[in-house]
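Running this now, will post back.
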Amino acid sequence: MTGAHVHPDTARRHTEAAGAMRVAHETAEAARILREHPDPLCTSDTLLSRVDGTMIPLVHGQWTEVRTLAVGEVQPATPTAAGPVVRTARRSHFSRRVDSSTFSDLATLELHWRGIAGARRVGVVVDGADWCQTFVDDPYPDTVRILDLPHAAAHVTPIVARATEVNVRLPAATLAVAGVTLPPEDPMAWCQVRKYVGPAVLLPALRATIAAQPTNQS
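Update: finished.
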């Protein structure tokens, strides 16, 4: 930033020192918010968040988990040839390499700054892990929980594949996407229903499919 040339060790030392100061400040602020429960700094109409953990490599073949919270403001839908597209704006992120309980406490600062307590609507995309559900329970119990598409597909695909394997007649689940009609035997068709139509249509069809399978092979 200044044009000065420094040794990599010097840059690393100063970066780590600055980071440690930032972490100490945010930790103290999170503790204050949990203790004093101040009013939110802002009020948003609709917020969408995502919380998840990612494994990262350390030295000597060791791995650790870093948990991350992402928050954005949901914008009005934009019409496109493939259908309406909804995006988020003013996205921000918060990450820590700590256990799930500590992460929930520390992330209070980010959620307070984004005004989650004053938002009219809040949604969160998660993968269904227990710690993610607990995280959602604390700051905003009325949050709309959305199972992300890859994890939903991981459950839907084996059901459809197994039903096809044992010759169970699948309920109608075709969906025209961008002019292409997908057959009900194709798990992708069911995932497209989940994505574009929602679980209200998908879940009854899945339940009927499971119920129709032989008891000893369900």
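The radius of gyration is 22 Å. More later if anyone needs it.
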